[in-house]
Amino acid sequence: MKRILLLICAGIVFSACGSRSTIEIKSEGKDIPFIEKSSYTTVQKAIFSGADVTDPNHALRWITIRNYDFEASKTDPNSEKLTAPEQVKIFLSLHDEAGTSAETPLKPGSYKGAKSIGPMSFELINVYVFRDGKEQRLYLYPSQQADPTTCEVKITSVDGDKVTGEINASGKQDGKEFLVKGPFTAKINKR
Question: pLDDT for 98-119, tens place per residue?
Answer without folding.
Answer: 999 999 999 999 999 999 889 9
